[in-house]
């Protein structure tokens, strides 16, 4: 388990036993912003625009004293995010994405994720042959091909959020994306207003010899005008590469199938985390393990495997809690009884404290 600190310290703990004991530590030049592991190497993104790459020594132990530093360009800017994409690492640097080959420790490919040079890539989420990219202070998600780096799709979430929640009542001046995750065959999007949206991922575009034949998700063509409606797809581009396998999965999405959660945060969604899990919440608020299914008639093996569901827990973290159906009102209820009237209220009300919201998602793996 690797932990990076704002003061530049990097700590390595055991993920098996005795978690509290620090096995290795080293002081780096600047704040640690992101960590990824791929094929025996750990890449550490720093706030000064450099990338520290660690590897194991001949004895099989991590050698923190011998690491390689990569400089991604001048003038230096923070490396805001990284994502493992197959055996490569995508790094968000200014308005660009750098594709790093960890073994050779070289930049293999660079491309602009946004035309404005002052923009910043903030989140990356990979699944199949696609990588979703978000830009700081922007409400549009961009999909790129994992191998060809071709721009495939743009999706703007602002019309959908405005339609569902309105713009005046909750004071939404604009919508910006602050958290991004792929889990449970869905794209999870968190905004600066505390809104959580999940969008089903599907191979919506049927491609044949580089031709765009149709959309499975919303049964429309991007040239039919449906994509221009609020919350619809802005652009869908064909993938004209002929060397990709026919079974490759490109995670397109459509806001027509999006779901907005009315439980959110009062401030920006800070992060998403997904873990395998299956729980049931009872009426009194306690959490119990889901009971195992009892014995029943045996289904054919192929049919049983095809219909087998997986369960995943998705957690969002942020400051405060709000039910968007009610609004931003405080819970002013006072308990009746013999309580002390002069009791001092807590510094932070329940709605203002930091919260973690948990969803359980059942899905069939691709």
Structure description:
InterPro entries: JIP3/JIP4 (IPR039911), Quinoprotein_ADH-like_sf (IPR011047), WD40/YVTN_repeat-like_dom_sf (IPR015943). Pfam families: WD40_2. One of its GO terms (cellular component) is cytoplasm. One of its GO terms (molecular function) is JUN kinase binding. The protein has 366 residues and is mainly β. The chain has a domain at 1-112: YVTN repeat-like/Quinoprotein amine dehydrogenase (Methylamine Dehydrogenase, Chain H, 7 Propeller), CATH 2.130.10. Helix content is 4%, strand content 44%. The chain has helices at residues 158-165, 301-306; strands at 2-4, 9-13, 22-27, 32-38, 41-46, 50-55, 68-71, 79-85, 88-93, 96-101, 106-112, 121-127, 130-135, 140-145, 151-156, 177-183, 186-191, 196-200, 205-208, 211-215, 233-236, 259-261, 263-264, 269-276, 279-281, 287-289, 310-319, 322-323, 354-363. The strands form 9 sheets. A 5-stranded antiparallel beta sheet has the order 12-13-14-15-21. A hairpin with a 2-residue loop joins β12 (121-127) and β13. It is globular, with a radius of gyration of 23 Å.
Features:
366 residues; mainly beta; Methylamine Dehydrogenase, Chain H; 5-stranded antiparallel β-sheet; 4-stranded antiparallel β-sheet; 2 helices; 29 strands; 44% strand
């Amino acid at each position: 388990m690797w932990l990076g600190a704002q003061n530049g310290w990097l700590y390595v703990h055991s993920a098996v036993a005795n978690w509290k004991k620090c096995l290795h530590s080293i002081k780096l030049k600047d704040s640690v912003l992101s960590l990824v592991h791929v094929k025996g190497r750990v890449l550490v993104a720093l706030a000064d625009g450099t990338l520290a790459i660690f590897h194991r020594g001949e004895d099989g132990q991590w050698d923190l004293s011998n690491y390689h530093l990569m400089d991604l360009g001048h003038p230096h800017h923070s490396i805001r995010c990284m994502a493992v994409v197959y055996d490569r690492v995508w790094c968000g640097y200014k308005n660009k994405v750098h594709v790093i080959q960890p073994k050779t420790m070289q930049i293999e490919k660079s491309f602009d994720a946004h035309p404005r040079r002052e923009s910043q890539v903030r989140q990356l989420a990979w699944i199949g042959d696609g990588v979703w990219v978000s830009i700081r202070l922007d409400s549009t998600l961009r999909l790129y091909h994992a191998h060809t780096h071709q721009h495939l799709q743009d999706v703007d979430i602002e019309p959908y959020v405005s339609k569902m929640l309105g713009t005046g009542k909750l004071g939404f001046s604009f919508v910006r994306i602050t958290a991004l995750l792929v889990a449970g065959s869905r794209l999870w999007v968190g905004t600066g207003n505390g809104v959580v949206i999940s969008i089903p991922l599907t191979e919506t575009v049927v491609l044949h010899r580089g031709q765009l034949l149709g959309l499975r998700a919303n049964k429309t063509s991007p040239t039919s005008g449906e994509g221009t409606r609020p919350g619809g797809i802005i652009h869908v581009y064909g993938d004209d590469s002929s060397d990709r396998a026919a079974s490759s999965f490109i995670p397109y999405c459509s806001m027509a199938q999006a779901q907005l959660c009315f439980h959110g945060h009062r401030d920006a969604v800070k992060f998403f985390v997904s873990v395998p899990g299956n729980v049931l919440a009872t009426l009194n608020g306690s959490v119990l393990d889901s009971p195992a299914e009892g014995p029943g008639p045996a289904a054919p093996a192929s049919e049983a495997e095809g219909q087998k569901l997986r369960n995943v827990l998705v957690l969002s973290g942020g400051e405060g809690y709000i039910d968007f159906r009610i609004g931003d009102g405080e819970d002013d209820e006072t308990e009746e009884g013999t309580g002390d009237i002069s009791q001092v209220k807590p510094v932070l009300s329940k709605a203002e404290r930091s919260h973690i919201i948990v969803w359980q998602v059942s899905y069939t793996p691709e």
